[in-house]
Amino acid sequence: MSGRATVIVAAFFSLFILSLAASSAAEIEVDDDWAGADYDNIQEAVDNAAPGDEIKVYDGTYLERVNVTKQVRIWAAGAEAIVDSNKTGTVFSILEDGVVLEGLNIVGARGSSSGGENGIRIVDGIDVQIIDCTLERHEYGIYTGGTSGLTITDCFINKTERAVYLRGSDQITITGLRAPSSSNAGVYLHGATNSYVGPSISYLAI
After folding, report:
1. Model confidence over 105-125: pLDDT tens digits?
2. 3-state secondary structure at position 200
3. Who is most buried in 44, 83, 106, 119, counting CB within 10 A?
4. Which comes out higher in pLDDT, residue 12 or 30?
């Protein structure tokens, strides 16, 4: 086989593998009170997802803490998908790269006796996206001790000590943030590098 033919075959095979991966991604439905959904809680959906899957969360109140250990997109199908840790600690802990949280109402971490009072904590993951989420009643709305490539877009964060607290992070992009009542700082960047905070309504501390 000629070198050119080998390149063409290799390119075709690569495209085939990529299309196969895209077509195998599943949409998993979560609803707290609809028997037709795949699961009635988000954590179980994450546990049974494959990397690249999408988890569609219908309106309802989900009393849980979620450890996101897969590269998945978790998104709200309506405006009233509420995830509430009910004062038991951090609501979403992200432990994988490329996670997307979109359109969720994330509430209730503040008051935890365990001390982990974050709406979203990025424990171990890069290129995380947080889009159009509402976070209320936390010590820190979004917290990380170190990440890269984090994007926060069009989020509303209210009734927190600090809306966004990022330590030792790189390549952070924050736009459209609304944080009207954070008691300490809207955005607190501690040792963050190569980062951009675009038009927002908040108080920035560095």
Report:
1. 999 888 766 666 899 999 988
2. coil
3. 119
4. 30
